[in-house]
Design brief:
Elements lengths: L24 E3 L21 H7 L5 E4 L3 E2 L3 E3 L13 E5 L4 E3 L8 E3 L4 E4 L2 E3 L8 E3 L7 E3 L2 E3 L6 E3 L4 E6 L2 E5 L11 E3 L4 E6 L2 E5 L4 E3 L10 E7 L2 E5 L4 E3 L2 E7 L2 E5 L10 E5 L4 E6 L2 E5 L1 E5 L11 E6 L2 E5 L10 E5 L3 E6 L2 E5 L2 E5 L11 E3 L2 E3 L2 E5 L7 E3 L2 E2 L4 E3 L5 E2 L2 H8 L6 E2 L2
Parallel strand pairs: 1-2, 2-5, 3-6, 4-7, 5-8, 6-9, 7-10, 8-11, 9-12, 10-13, 11-14, 12-15, 13-16, 14-17, 15-18, 16-19, 17-20, 18-21, 19-22, 20-23, 21-24, 22-25, 23-26, 24-27, 25-28, 26-29, 27-30, 28-31, 29-32, 30-33, 31-34, 32-35, 33-36, 34-37, 35-38, 36-39, 37-40, 39-42
Antiparallel strand pairs: 40-41
């Protein structure tokens, strides 16, 4: 467990430290001397990846030589063997060979076997609306690394149907969008029933929806996603959020760089870098650098009637800057917003240069913000804090504010003086102005 009560996702070793096993099976682009009747050696390579998949056993390495391959990869028990923890099967590209989608309704790669490592491929979706890569049960210990995934009108990578223990690391995921109605074109989607998923070191940009989305269940009995680590990624220039966390739990968003988010025409608010809503719980958001967005971090917002609001959310040690009204559309350029949520802790964040308030809570009309703590933050903006009436149990203290910024306590009044703010709100007793 971590300090916020989250169960930590299981972490595995980096693929950069993978086994340097000698390739056993070779695949080359079609041409003279390349055939599936060959023995798959470096001198007589197979002509299709499918043929190599049928041949590989635990511990084997399949090396795909540079070229273009118009085929879809299906890793399931009917077509391939499973790897083992001690002897995974590695499917490795040399010189970034390109897989090109030829069946628009099918994923380019489907992983339904454990302990397969797929690395060093270009996955060109060619405008297909299917997922580029899908992981589903049983996929424990399988991973996608160092791949260039692009060019679709659907989703880049998804985990679903009980996928567990999947690593998605150091990939370049980009250019998933449609000419119209492109909000569903996400970079990575973690579906309900997924468990222990790690996204680390990826660069995701230019998607029509979110860079990463944790999707809520469609019904009241499906288990939500749990145990997701989103760490050290660069997430930028999407028409949705960097990270959207819907009903799921035990989620960590750590050490990411997020920039350039702008709300869409006709969308619900928009431009939020990180959005925690519906009934998400046990969420830790820490040490992220967020800039150039319509809102930095929003906890609360969209909800399912009759279901709990987000709860047990810790937001700490983040830097949020350059949040502008220009990017906000229906949003209001807030650094951190808390709506209809409970047990939310904002700790030691730095918020500067916001077009709206640095922190805004308990005033949305969507519900009650209960048990919120705002402690040890540094805020430098023309508008510092706005608190509404729907904020029972609010604690604010040990914060540092820039001089001359606006404080707003709803019907209690506005002031640009910290002493007056303390007097009429009974908050921030030990807070101070920056020197």
């Amino acid at each position: 467990m971590n300090e916020s009560g989250n169960r930590r996702p299981v972490e595995r070793g980096s693929l950069t430290e993978r086994l340097e096993a000698t390739p056993r099976w070779f695949v080359g682009p079609r041409g003279p001397g390349v055939s599936d009747t060959n023995d798959g050696s470096s001198f007589r390579p197979f002509a299709s990846i499918r043929r190599a998949l049928r041949s590989a056993s635990p511990g084997d390495v399949i090396l795909i030589l540079a070229g273009i391959y118009e085929e879809h990869i299906v890793l399931d028990k009917e077509l391939a063997r499973a790897g083992t923890p001690e002897a995974p099967i590695i499917l490795r590209g040399e010189g970034l060979p390109k897989l090109r989608a030829i069946m628009p309704e099918r994923p380019l790669i489907q992983v339904r076997l454990p302990h397969w490592r797929i690395e060093g491929l270009e996955l060109d979706m060619g405008g297909s609306s299917a997922r580029a890569v899908s992981f589903s049960h049983p996929s424990q210990g399988s991973c996608l690394s160092r791949c260039d995934v692009h060019g679709g009108t659907g989703v880049g990578i998804s985990t679903s149907e009980g996928a567990a223990g999947v690593l998605i690391e150091h990939n370049h995921i980009h250019d998933f969008h449609q000419e119209k109605a492109s909000q569903g074109c996400h970079g990575v989607v973690i579906h309900a029933t997924s468990r222990d998923i790690i996204l680390r070191g990826n660069h995701i940009h230019d998607t029509g929806g979110d860079a990463v989305q944790c999707l809520q269940p469609d019904d009241g009995w499906t288990e939500p996603a749990e145990g997701v680590l989103i760490e050290n990624n660069t997430l930028e220039s999407t028409r949705g959020s960097a990270v959207s966390i819907k009903t799921s739990h035990d989620i960590i968003v750590r050490g990411n760089r997020m920039r350039n988010f702008r709300g869409c025409e006709g969308g619900w608010r928009g431009g939020d870098a990180v959005l925690v809503h519906y009934s998400a719980w046990n969420v830790l958001i820490e040490r992220n650098l967020i800039s150039e967005a319509g809102c930095g971090i929003c906890v609360g917002g969209l909800k399912d009637e009759g279901r709990p609001d987000p709860s047990r959310v810790v937001v700490r040690d983040n830097t949020i800057r350059d949040i502008s009204l220009e990017r906000a559309r229906n949003n209001d350029a807030v650094g951190i917003r808390v709506n209809n949520a409970s047990d939310v802790r904002l700790l030691h964040n730095t918020i500067e240069r916001t077009g709206g308030f640095a922190v805004r809570l308990g005033d949305s009309g969507d519900g009650i913000s209960r048990g919120v703590e705002v402690l040890g933050n540094t805020m430098s903006a023309a508008q510092l804090v706005r608190v509404g009436l729907d904020r029972p149990g609010l604690r604010m203290n040990l914060n540092r504010y820039s001089s001359g910024g606006l404080f707003d306590a709803s019907d209690l009044g506005q002031t640009r003086g910290l002493a007056e703010w303390k007097r009429f709100t009974r908050l921030d007793a030990d807070s101070s102005l920056e020197a």
